[in-house]
Amino acid sequence: MIITSLENQKVKLLLKLDSTKNRKKEKKFIVEGKHLVDEARKKGVLLEAYSLEEKDGYIALSKEIMKKICNTDTVVTEIGLCKIVESTTLSDKLLILDGVQDPGNMGALMRSSKAFGFDTIIIGNGSCDIYNDKVIRASQGAIFKLSFIHADLLEIIPKLSVYDVYGTNVVNGIELDNVEKKNKMAIVLGNEGNGISKEVQEILKKNIYIPMSNTESLNVSVAGSIIMYKLRNN
Amino acid sequence: MIITSLENQKVKLLLKLDSTKNRKKEKKFIVEGKHLVDEARKKGVLLEAYSLEEKDGYIALSKEIMKKICNTDTVVTEIGLCKIVESTTLSDKLLILDGVQDPGNMGALMRSSKAFGFDTIIIGNGSCDIYNDKVIRASQGAIFKLSFIHADLLEIIPKLSVYDVYGTNVVNGIELDNVEKKNKMAIVLGNEGNGISKEVQEILKKNIYIPMSNTESLNVSVAGSIIMYKLRNN
Fold first, then answer.
1. How much is the pTM?
2. Distances (CA, A) of B52 to B1, B8, B137
């Protein structure tokens, strides 16, 4: 049987998950494409899988319904309904995001985090929703290989006393090449336009800066990735 | 006098420049916002400046016309008509792009190129148009501080014999930490999905790879930026 009605309860839920608010409320999100559905299954967060055709382990949706659910121009042949799992443990290397807004930057940072062993990402208020379809696409599956903690940074950063926590700011900054590598380190990245918020900056004791030509600046996902590359465990 | 008619010849030209084809034909492009107009003026490529109000050195456009020309949701108060200038000289460090498609990646790479002294970018066929409004926005003005050469990579790369030219590929790759820094170096980056094209890969003698966790991969602007950071002149 192929579901063709927009009034179907399952379809109604899938459509609702287009908004950040509903994803948060339902603790569920959607991934598009076979690769991501498989990754979600591996990670154990796949609740239901949907495809355009009737096959084992999948619920079938009509093409029209699938189109309504997905936000891509290309035809998506399968999607997965996944549960949001919040982490409670911290990896040795942490990435902390204070208002990173662009989904492409968020996805790129996830790939770099995983590649360089920053396996837990702490997401502060004002950052973009990591379960946004654009973020998931840009993360290329890295979203299923990382742990996430949503927190008020003003509350959680002071508790990270066993970590060397660095902001990213030229002012009072240590040049990246001179930063001492430690086992437990955390890097705080700020908003694309405004950097780290004033309140968070005030509780950070140390900053890193990347040496570069005068007056230039880097994209936040680039800057964060260069720092993670440099401070990774070999 | 404020221009209010879509039939005005200047307005017609500005509207035409929304397409890559017309930008190429007219050798002109548009930048949005005071910051970029000022940068274009500094660089000497500003042909005309337009604003919402009548003032010295500006041609005034009605809000409706300005909206039609710009692609942003926010109100743009001034735009600049700029000429496309193709470079003929090469900097010591070169970035070579073989099919980088995403405007955000292209803009981020420009910022990193400038920041790390890769002052000439060679753009191969199949890369996205650098005069696209999204690229210009993402470049944050770096587009006016770099030189660009559009070329067939199969023709230009063999001519770069005084440069150490590196592809980016794990296969037959040298780990980034072990790459010998030279004065004249060129880095080739490939397409987001497919990497460097087969034809270009065949004429590259050396490759760089970035050490990372198994099975992971990086966003192309991140990978290129890490390499440029590492190989910059100090």
1. 0.94
2. 11, 16, 20
